[in-house]
Amino acid sequence: MDIKISPSILSSDYANLQRELGRIDNADLIHIDVMDGHFVPNITIGIPVIQALKKVCDIPFDVHLMISQPYDYIEAFANAGADIICFHAESEGNIGATVDRILFFGKKAAIAVKPDTDIDVVLPYLDKLSMVLVMTVEPGFGGQSFMERVLPKIQKVREIRPDIDIEVDGGVDYSTVTLAAEAGANVFVAGSAVFGAASPADAIETLRNNAQSVMS
Ligand code: DX5
Ligand code: ZN
Q1: Which of 45, 144, 173 to mutate to test the pocket of ligand 1 (most atoms within 8 A of CB)?
Q2: Residues with CB under 6 A from ligand 1
């Protein structure tokens, strides 16, 4: 499986987003956390900011929707420049209809699951999904600790679908990236581990190398 590092701009300097993107130009994806203050207690950035960033960045956008009503906003996020649209299985609305709407707008579909959500909820949709996001923290905030108890969910999806992208998000650092990679993940979100480093670009390469070291 290809390793992809997807730095989360949640931990970047929001006053200088274009400059921050320039510091991670070796990233495979750009992870953008959208929060509505309802599905999660926090509020972050939304459609106009994604639209603006799209004009200054060629790296695909991995948009993680932590919002209660994703179905209603798929068209807007697709038009704004999302390349992968990831919504939560725990959000409101019909999961299958939301997946189909993402595909209708020509984007890659992904479903995210919170740490306490049974992974079986995504299994009926695997044939349509490009990626499954297994959260390794409770969504809402950066800088939390990686939950190892979530790892069996990654193993289960990897056994069923050797070819699908499996993303981990939350508490991924130079050490925990190897645990996730051993379990079968190949897409790694990192916020504080990348933007908290003196050189975010070097941090990306270290994460990539550490994941590679345990993958066959
Ligand atoms: C949390 C977000 C994450 C967050 C990860 O709800 O989904 O993408 O930015 O931050 P770190 O890597 O600092 O745990
Ligand atoms: Zn995220």
Answers
A1: 144
A2: 8, 10-11, 31, 33, 64, 137, 139-144, 169-172, 189-193
Amino acid (one-letter) located at 66: M
Atom of ligand 1 nearest to the CA of 10: 9
pLDDT-derived band at 202 (thresholds 50, 70, 90) equals very high
Residue 100 falls in the annotated catalytic set: no
pLDDT digits (tens, 9 = 90+) for 25-63: 999 999 999 999 999 999 999 999 999 999 999 999 999
Q: Which atom of ligand 1 is nearest to the CA of 64?
A: 7
